[in-house]
Amino acid sequence: MVDAAVRRLGLWTSCLAQLSVVLDVSVVNIALPSVQAELGLGRVAASWVAMAYGLGFAGVLLVGARLADVVGTARMLAWGAGAFALAGTIGGLATEGWVLVLARAAQGLAAAVVSPATFTLLTVTHAEGPGRTRAIAIWTGVGLAGGGLGNVVSGVLTDLISWRLTLLINLPIGAVVVVAAAVLHRRSVDERRGGRIGLAGAGLATGAFTGAAYALSSAGDPAAGMLPAVAGGGACVLLALLVVQQRRSRHPLVPSALLRDRTIVAGNVATALTASCFQMGLWFFLTYRMQTQLGYTPIQAGMAFVPLIVATLAVNLWVAPRLMSRYAPRILVVAGAAIAVPGLVWFALVTRGPFAVSFLVPSVVIGIGGGLLNTPLATVVTTGVRAGHAGAASGLMNTSKQFGGAAGLAAASTATAAYGTDRAAFVLMTLALVAASAVVAGTPRRGAAPTSVAAGHLR
């Protein structure tokens, strides 16, 4: 039985590590012009500072997640957090553009180990029930708010001190996570592990998802030429080979039991659809709108996200867990989407005006809806998963998030370019949330048996 001290340490270690990973998705966005000017980077090279992280992160998520099951969750978290902090430090001290790009790619690879391990740590230290729901709510809140917080931190540090601190802050955070994870490892959090990772499957998965991530990230960029199409085609071939290989493998990256579960599959589809809005698109297009259309400075743009962050966290931490004790997760997902959709429609219709009209009201509405739906959705994709598959389930969820976010951003960017306005982006996000709620509404209800079995495995 996991004692209370270990549960608390596991929760806050998971949240701190997840915060650093999510922050680094967005923390360089506002800093990019300063990075470009100081290091003398061209437009393409500057875009790779952001893209390299996403490619490394998305490319090896399934492999990184499975390592938590095979090697041990806390142990992999310690190694991953250490590597993440070291790579961030190298990037923060870089004097050449290529060094920064390689450091960001290394950060992405480490993040692919850290992020799924943080969620797995919650599932192995918290049995199913109110305690796990509360832990997932806090972890999800950190992830949701991290994107906007990254913009706030980036704007403040870049304007007042230096863009380099946006990466160097990973060193103290990483040190704390490494020490905490080492303590958890000694407290036997890693006692359940099993299986191994086949090199063929790992290689095919890495190639397929890296190619797909590049194709999605660079879609619509004229400078990329035919490379996105080539990468996308290669990713499809590798993905087909991966499916064949995994069916024959004795040690698949995603256990067949997860793929046969209709609720988990539907939950991951819905996760990808909601991620197309909340993972990247919302933050990207709002940041761009504020700085290019509304004339906000980096600090003003960052601070404008505070109401959205506060609304998301408040609902996610205090409202959603209480409602989950009374209502099924799928009901709350549908309700959250129904609340967030009017906010997205508002952004599609209103592009200018006073701050309260053009940004404050719709962002708070979206924050309330997002805060309500994300914790129940994370619960849907993990309920009934036994301890030996916790890492794989977490990896599947994180992969859905990353590729849903990348696909959503690519589609919204293409639509924006085609129509000449970001209104199209918010329309697509609206449609994605409506589709996500429809998918979740059609999932079968869980019985009591899977929950009790899973709880037994997690004691």
What's the arrangement of secondary structure elements?
Layout: H1 4-26, H2 32-39, H3 43-59, H4 61-71, H5 73-93, H6 97-125, H7 130-160, H8 165-168, H9 170-186, H10 199-218, H11 227-248, H12 256-259, H13 262-278, H14 281-292, H15 298-304, H16 306-324, H17 329-349, H18 355-380, H19 390-419, H20 423-441, H21 448-457
Helix pairs in contact: 1-6, 1-7, 1-9, 2-3, 3-6, 3-10, 4-5, 4-6, 4-19, 5-6, 5-9, 6-7, 6-19, 7-15, 7-16, 7-18, 10-11, 10-19, 13-18, 13-19, 13-20, 16-18, 17-18, 17-20, 19-20
Task: Walk me through this protein's architecture.
It is a single chain. This protein has two domains: 4-197 and 251-457, MFS general substrate transporter like domains (Growth Hormone, Chain: A); 198-250. It is built from 21 helices and no strands. With 459 residues, it is mostly helical. It has helices at 4-26, 32-39, 43-59, 61-71, 73-93, 97-125, 130-160, 165-168, 170-186, 199-218, 227-248, 256-259, 262-278, 281-292, 298-304, 306-324, 329-349, 355-380, 390-419, 423-441, 448-457.
Which structural traits does this protein have?
459 residues; 21 helices; globular; transmembrane; MFS_trans_sf; disordered C terminus; Growth Hormone, Chain: A; single chain; transmembrane helix; membrane; MFS; 80% helix; mainly alpha
- Please report the first level of CATH classification, the CATH class of the largest domain: Mainly Alpha
Radius of gyration, taken over Cα atoms and rounded to an integer in Å = 21 Å
Q: Report the CATH superfamily of the largest domain.
A: MFS general substrate transporter like domains
Number of helices: 21
| Mean pLDDT metric | 81
Which structural class best describes the helix and strand composition? Answer: mainly alpha
For the secondary structure, the number of strands is 0
Membrane topology: Multi-pass membrane protein
Domain Major facilitator superfamily (MFS) profile: 10-447
Subcellular location: Cell membrane
InterPro entries: MFS, MFS_dom, MFS_trans_sf
